[in-house]
Amino acid sequence: MATSAAKPETETLRTLPGDDVRQILWRFADRYDLQMLVQSSRSVARGIVAHLVAEGARNTHEWTERKNELLKAYDDAGITAAFMEPEEGGFISGPKNLALSLIAHELAWVDAGAATGSLAGCLALSPIHERGTPEQRQKYMSLAAPAQPGEDRKPWRGAFCLTEPIPYVGVDTGMLNGKVRVAEWNEGEEPMLQVEKRGRFITNMGFANFATAAVDTADERIKSSCIIILEEGDEGVFDRGTPTRKMVHQLSSTSDPIFSLKVPASRIVGGYTLKDGVIVPTYTHSEVIEAVFKRTRVTVAVMTSAKLLSAIEPVIRYQRGRFRGAEQATPGTLRYELGLQQREDVLHRLLDVWAMGEASAALAFAAARCFDVVDPLEKEKTRILAEQGIKGGKSELKFFRSVTKEALEFLDLCAKPEDCRNNVRLLELHENKLVQYAILDSVASVLCPAAKLWNTGKGSVLMREAVSLMGGYGITEDCPGFLGHKWMDSQLEATYEGPEAVQRRNLTVTMTNELFLKQFRNWIIEMRAIAAHKPGTGACTLATAMQLWMWTYNHTQNGTDANGNKLYHGTRQAVTFALADALCWLLASRQQILDAQELEAKGPDNPVVAEGLAGTLQFMTDLCHIQAAKAAGEVARICAELVYGYNRHPAWDEDGYKGCYQEQELEMLEGVIPGFSACATDVIGVDGTHPHKEGPCPSCRGLSGFQRIRNKLDGCLTGVMLAKDRAAESLQTVMIPEALDYPM
Amino acid sequence: MSTPFQIVVCGGIVPDPLQTLEPISGPAGPSLKNEMMLPAVLDPWAGHALYEAANLAKAVPGSKVYLVSLGPKAKLQQVMMTVAQKVAFELVAVDGPASGFTDAHEAAMALAEAIKTIPGLDKSKLLIFGGWESASRGAGATLQIIGEMLGVTDQFQGVDRIQVREDDSFEILERIEGGRHQVSTCAGAPAVLGWATGYLAEPRNDPQVGMANMRTIMPALQKAKAAKVGAEGLKFAKVELPKQQRQTRIVKDMAADEIAKEIAEWIGKN
Q1: Do A737 and B208 touch (CB under 8 A)?
Q2: Spatial distance between the Cα atoms of A140 and A128, rounded to a whole number of angstroms
Q3: What percent of chain A has pLDDT over 90?
């Protein structure tokens, strides 16, 4: 096939993307509160955090006085208060998911342990924030808020103590080891409860003043499990335990506490009611955790993205200066100016790291923004359901069946051209809060586990690549950008808030939601439309890969394996988990493309971005293309394994022979159609001989649709290596600062 | 108690010092390569002036701090995300170039005009603060010209400390040679103070202070007037950055005194 002769002139990336570009990509260009929060978090990260890491503070598991300075730095910079509402001492009103994600991104750019410590305080408060009584919220938020000018008090710190059965970490949130029973219950007085709880791997315990702990009932006078607030001044044992000997994240305090405390029943998060002499917690521990973990995983996902993006500048600096100092590398020579970047290998590998970093950040920030929209809608939903007296899982499910129907109608209308649809009905459904909640929640519920699973899991693999690009320097303690630390740290992030299997399991439930699948189908059309007006983004490649995933998903829903067993089944994780993994690649790539679209749309309005927009946009677009191709490859591999892998391979037996030509038969046909025998592959000789291979090639009956899409997908990769070459050229010439803005 | 001051801090923006700066010739004269795309910071010298101003305003109740800044609007907005968190002030923005290749007289004229437009500015309470020097191609002249244009002739340069007395006069420490200070007494406002480094550390970022400041900063940026400040008529024969030098020699077991001696000799030779 001929290729076009003329090489078009394109702009290259002039400088590394700055704050203005990021603000557009991650949609906070109009949020001055968040921009300031980014700056203040950055000053902490590249100040005290970076110095602590450089001084070797990570070499001890103990929570030292020096590490303790971090807490004050968080307070001073407004990081602690970012979680709170203005009336509680905060400065940002409304949902905080994007704000917390941006903090995590800035801190993890230098050290994810520091980010973890800051987020753990929010995690401890989250059960109270999401499900606490007004009194609990008022008390603990006020205590945890940093002191205002003129106030003389130390803010309280919290720890979140879930803990699955010890000695393990992160197994199953449903299986608790903590117990609560009634200690005293005098007539007319509030019951006093005895809480026995042993924690494992609990962050912030080195200094926590209170812990929100999950406990199961061990008393017939308490109906269910609950989350309960434990304070250090409570009667009994509040033992912080021994520090966990982590190999990673040493700038967060982690230990295995022991609690044996007597506390009033009013500490049950969300309160309780009394029914026939039994304490009935308003929320079980699972209900509280569901509300909390629904969104907190996003911030962890952001942490690994920050690692990948933070690796770019140090790697470029190292590679360019690799030979300087040697006699043979004199200024002005390629060896001196470009160092290792004279050759494709390091350039292309770094582009893989960068593309993944962009995609994972795009995915996580999209999830955070989505939750910022869902949160108020969820409150509205709760209010409406309460008004209508609908409470509990089954009645809520029943109620939402009709809402789902309307939501599907809304999505159908959205997909139609403007002049061919009922716009009055569309507006009506658009204003229906429950419909909008159902639609957005179905997406948020997928994006959150997807970001957590993919960003951390695949991110840690690419971090290894980043470290390898530094040569031996990468695994030294003085590696610029602390890349070696980050590589190890990413492994812990992959297991935070449940091991990867938890996220995969979560996804296999949420991705089958018909509302999500409907939107997913619409996204395929959306990607084709983007490709039509902006070729070279990889959107068309991605659309084909999404089609392939959808085909495979449908196939597994109805298909069976060679033994007649259903393919898609809750317990068949080899199928469901694999499809979940493939989906993550698609979601991340799509979001990256959408972000590049946003930059194209909004960039020209910002004079700072506009100056080099052509080059920046071209580079970001090329990164999208690179990532889309990578995603397509992964999805194609996974889907092909699922589609073909559960069919038994034909053997050289009676059944297998049925599909083969006999030698004599071929000779006869050759007489009628000359050259025919050359087309036959599986030929059985007169003496029963057959070709040297496993068996006759399998038949693909029923799979032609898959083959067609997969074949098309290969063709869709056209141009990706040209994009990579173009982006590599940008890497060679991009201007980087004279030095990193934090120490080695 | 002293009479409250109206402190006007003149402070420009400069590229973040960690960035690679490469002078180039553009259509509008000399400039820096990719200047708009490089992150900018408040000129560190102006920063010292601003923090000292805020400290003085805190010590003299009723005082108010204005930051008058000339720079591209979009870059000013970016820099304000950090500066606004440091101390309380009101921004007066002037939209114009900040490359360091502008003429000091033109820049001073634009800033002086902007100061004159500050509503209710009382010259008898006016203190004009700024950097004694600049991290851009500063001639150290802009602040003095502003003072002259506004008729403020009590001027002090290289200031490290101001101490206000009960009678509204103040004592000023100005840097002189040999690491010593010259002590001056000024009868009172108005005066121009070109700050050296002062004694104050950079305040921490506080988003809550920032949120309060942004209520006035955003409108100020929106109504910033464009100033015709350029390098028209100026001709730069040659512009280049100092070249980095690296002469490394690895030695073992050398006494600190010997190392110091050798370095001192090397510096002497250059």
Answers
A1: no
A2: 8
A3: 81
Kindly tell me the burial class for residue B200, based on how many C-beta atoms sit within 10 Å of its own C-beta (0-12, 13-18, 19 or more): middle
Q: How far apart are CA A399 and CA A307, in angstroms?
A: 43
Surface-to-core class of residue B210, CB atoms within 10 Å of its CB (0-12 exposed, 13-18 middle, 19+ buried): buried
Surface-to-core class of residue A273, CB atoms within 10 Å of its CB (0-12 exposed, 13-18 middle, 19+ buried): exposed
The predicted model gives A363-376 an average pLDDT of: 97
Complete DSSP assignment for A547-598 = HHHHHHHHHHHH-B-TTS-BSS-TT-HHHHHHHHHHHHHHHHHHHHHHHHHH
Instruction: Answer whether residue A1 shows pLDDT above 80.
Output: no
CA distance A66 to chain B (A): 18
Task: Provide the percentage of residues in chain A whose pLDDT is more than 70.
Answer: 98
Give A613→chain B minimum CA distance, Å.
10
Token pair belonging to A336 = 């001196």
Phi-psi region of B23 (alpha: psi -120 to 50; beta: other; left: phi over 0): beta
Across the interface, of B39, B74, B204, the residue whose CB is closest to A77 is: B204
Q: Does A14 contact B34 at a Cβ distance shorter than 8 Å?
A: yes
**pLDDT over threshold 90, residue A543:** yes
Does A16 reach chain B within 8 Å, measured CB to CB?
no
CB contact under 8 A, B207 and A40: yes
What average pLDDT does this structure show over B124-143?
A: 89
CA angle A381, A385, A391 (to 5 degrees): 125
* B89 and B67 Cβ atoms separated by less than 8 Å: yes
pLDDT of residue B237: 78
Q: Considering only residues 27 to 66 of chain A, which have any Cβ-Cβ distance to chain B shorter than 8 Å?
A: 32-33, 35-40, 43
pLDDT at A3: 44
Q: Which two tokens stand for residue A562?
A: 């060679």
C-alpha span between A588 and A448 (Å, rounded): 11
Q: Determine contact, residues A230/A267, Cβ cutoff 8 Å.
A: yes
The answer to whether residue A561 neighbours chain B at the CB level (below 8 Å) is no
Q: B16, A35: Cβ pair inside 8 Å? A: no
| A325 at B interface, C-beta within 8 A | yes
pLDDT at A48 over 50: yes
- For helices A514-533 and A393-415, the axis angle rounded to 10 degrees is 20
pLDDT tier at A9 (50, 70, 90 boundaries)? low
How high does pLDDT run on average in chain A?
Answer: 93
Contact between chains at A611 and B205 (C-beta distance less than 8 A): no
**How distant, in Å, are the alpha carbons of A64, B37, B40, B99, B132 from that of B135?**
39, 18, 11, 11, 10
Residues of B within 8 A of A37 (CB-CB) are 207
Residue A405's pLDDT is what? 96
Least confident of A371-375, B113-117, B244-248: B244-248
- Best of A13, A30, A35 to disrupt the B interface (most B CBs within 10 Å) is A35
The H or E element containing residue A227 is strand A226-231
Q: Do the beta carbons of residue A551 and residue A709 sit within 8 Å?
A: yes
Whether B85 has its CB under 8 Å from any CB of chain A: the answer is: yes
By Cβ distance, the residue of A40, A608, A738 closest to B20 is A738
DSSP B4: P
The whole-number average pLDDT for the span A570-589 is 97
Split at pLDDT 50, 70, 90, the class of A744 is low
User: Are the beta carbons of A251 and A53 closer than 8 angstroms?
Assistant: yes
Is B251 an 8 Å CB contact of chain A?
no
Interface probe, candidates B16, B75, B205, chain A, greatest A C-beta count within 10 A: B205
Contact of B214 with chain A, judged by CB distance below 8 Å, is answered with: yes
- Residue of B13, B37, B213, B221 to mutate when probing chain A, most A C-beta within 10 A: B37
What's the CA gap between B95 and B110, in Å, rounded?
A: 10
